[in-house]
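Input.
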Amino acid sequence: MKLLTLSLISGALSYLSVSLPHLLSLQFKVSYDMLFMLPGLLFGLFILVPLVGASKHRALRQVGLMVFSVFAWYVAVSIGFQVLPLIKQSPVLSCGVSGMIGVLLLAVASRYLVPIAVGPSSVVWAVIAGFFGGCVIGLAVSLPRASVASEVLYFFGFLSWHSSVGLTLFSKGKTDPGNNRPV
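Output.
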């Protein structure tokens, strides 16, 4: 239940971090370039950081997970918005593939930085969840920005990606707080 709550908060705040500045820029001169990395940071902060058990390198691992989460967001979005459109992919497919890439990067980071026992079936389900969450965001991208429909799709896209990926990838993963090894 805690993981679900944290992932829903992460998804909602990620939506706000990318949409609110855009909506405000329609009325005011607000640059939202600095807030672009917040969804990755929020996922790392709310979902990955709590997974790290007590150990002598806990703070270093937590910072590493947040940095890697931002990196995963940047790589996934860059591929989805810069690389895949070059090969004439639709925004829906581009964002879906982008969502899958983000999941794979996060699975690797959590396996080696937490470490947490992430099984192959969890990764497969998380990749599927990442694809569908990305597709919902892709539907939003294909609509005029700041329309009611696009904002609803962005909101549910971020919410579904963060919660479904968080739950499928990390709900079964446990670490032993004594030595931070997978159990």
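The two ends are 20 Å apart (CA to CA).
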